[in-house]
Specification:
By secondary structure, the protein is an alpha/beta fold. It has helices at about 5-30, 35-45, 60-70, 80-95, 130-140, 155-175, 185-195, and strands spanning about 50-55, 75-80, 100-105, 115-120, 140-150, 195-205, 210-215. It has a single domain (about 5-215), classed as Vaccinia Virus protein VP39 (Rossmann fold). The longest helix has 27 residues, at about 5-30. It binds S-adenosylmethionine.
Length: about 220
């Protein structure tokens, strides 16, 4: 087994354990504030009739919300098979199974279908290779790319760094394969600019930053 597959196994196991609780939490409380901002960003741009790819979809509730806001279809992919199971069950429960598909996949190492809108809600911070995830996301997006990352800037930066170090220490002591990553925002922006995207919107939400990027040259997209 390569170190990459050990890493993805550790991430998958962590989110397998959390899948049921995360789904129940959404059913009781709805979207978190940062996810709601991301949904508002993309729906204000016009979701009606659009195809959506969600990378790191977890139990799929964000993808299903995009369908409720008019998206024609969604595909969600995640490392966690338990989360994907919950997502498919939730799609059936919601009567949206004909427009929703959820698959287990490592989006850092597999290409994903071209879609109008691509989202990654609190996913980059759970994976060591941001560049690989951003490549899949930007290659797949025809129009919009939205994501949520930790608020690692300004006055929040020291607290975020200390909090992340403490969480990672606990995870190390618990011998889990899960770690939090604070990928430099400037590198994310540079990578996306190099792939033909420009920042359209940004918002702060407690511990999170929500970004919306737009493709500069729609004709440059794949598919
Ligand atoms: C913090 S959870 C967020 C889940 C969901 N987006 C939400 O907001 O509830 C991060 C998710 O990203 C997934 N993930 C991390 N790296 C991934 C990768 N390389 N490919 C697919 N999914 C990945 C994890 O399995 C996990 O379900």
């Amino acid at each position: 087994m390569t170190s990459g597959s050990v890493q993805t196994k550790g991430i998958a196991e962590t989110f397998d354990d959390l899948a049921h609780d995360r789904c129940c939490k959404y059913k009781s409380n709805g979207l978190t504030a940062s996810s709601q901002v991301l949904l508002d960003f993309i729906s204000n741009k016009g979701l009606v009739g659009k195809t959506v790819l969600e990378i790191g979809c977890g139990t799929g509730f964000f993808s299903l919300e995009t369908l409720r806001h008019g998206a024609s279809s969604c595909l969600g992919v995640d490392l966690s098979s338990a989360a994907i199971h919950e997502a498919n069950e939730f799609a059936k429960e919601s009567g949206l199974q004909n427009r929703a598909r959820f698959d287990v996949a490592d989006a850092a190492s597999t290409r994903q279908p071209a879609s109008d809108v691509v989202v990654m809600d609190k996913v980059l911070c759970c994976y060591p290779d941001a560049e690989a995830l951003l490549k899949t996301a930007s290659d797949s997006s025809r129009e919009l790319l939205g994501f949520v990352v930790p608020r690692d800037e300004g006055l929040m930066k020291p607290a975020m760094r200390i909090g992340t170090a403490l969480i990672n220490l606990v995870e190390k002591l618990r011998k889990t394969g899960f770690r939090l990553y604070l990928h430099p925002l400037i590198s994310i922006d540079e990578l996306l600019a190099g792939s033909g995207f420009q920042q359209e919107k940004k918002a702060k939400s407690r511990f999170w930053l929500v970004f919306l990027y737009k493709r500069n040259r729609p004709d440059a997209s794949r598919g």
